[in-house]
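Subject — a protein and its fold
Encoding — discrete vocabulary of local shapes:
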Amino acid sequence: MGMIRKRGRVYWIKYYRNGRPFEESARTGNYEEARDQLKQKEGDIANGVPVSPRTGRFKFDDAAADLVTEYEINSRRTTADLERRITLHLKPWFTGRRMTAIDAAQVRAFTEARLQAGAAPAEVNRELAALKRMFSLAVKEGRLHAKPYIAMLAERNVRRGFLEPAQFAAVERQLPAALRPVLRFAYLTGWRLASEVLPLEWRNVDWTGRVVRLDPGTTKNGEGRSYPFTAALDTLLTAQHAAHERLQQAGRIVPQVFHRNGKPIRNLRAAWQTACAAAGVPGRLLHDMRRSAVRNLERDGVSRSAAMAMVGHKTESIYRRYAIVDAGALRDAAAKIDQAAAVTIAVTIAKKESA
């Protein structure tokens, strides 16, 4: 049985877990509030929830702050995105709650509420992933003894958008002149526009080795990457470098490979959407160029391992998620089917003639 006693103006509660006594301040001079806290502790213990004075004081807001700090320390580019998810969706539901009191049932209730509000499964999964990370950090740091099971939702968001070369050429003609080279580069290489193409500088272009390099730490997976010159890439970069030299002769040093009259390109989404509509392919995404680049590499006979290294995919699962099919393998399969069919027909004809 637990106990409540008053020390000065504040009540203290005493409870037992596995025969071991724990005592902590209820931080209140109200007896009813202290009694409610004791009942909550005893209920958690009865339900098998690990309880101690330390875990009882650790709340969602503390865990959220720890996660944001961890993102900031590791200089993650998605820190602002994380803070938005916490502020808009997780805090309204969990703020003020003890982490030990957040169980699988409460997480399911949160998930159901988000889906009913119209959130996509992928969006909810990003929020659940943040919550899971909070629990993992707390357990790792000894602030919690265990974490609840958090079920993720099935995501049926297979990405299917592609741009055939003729379609991209039509879109390219509708783009402002300053944006054509950067989007052509993205279409050829499949590199990520915001984090890999737009920040690209001339120091990343190796004219002697005829490769374009991304420094370690600048890509999504943190690894460096190289893309060899192709004829199309050589033509594009040569034209860009000529423009760079003209600006240099005019007294302007611009380190970026892609720019708008010497100024960094910040946003091109609106121009892209307008150009796609004018070219007769509305609704295409900028990310479609990444998928298109991989498919074009496979169509050209580049091995999957080489294509993955050039574009920056670490696992083949990304191919399945993008619904990218190995075009070379399909051509080989079709040729074998045709060959087998031809043999069957020849055998049938030979039998008929012999009969």
Residues 165-324 form a domain with the hpI Integrase; Chain A fold (CATH 1.10.443.10).
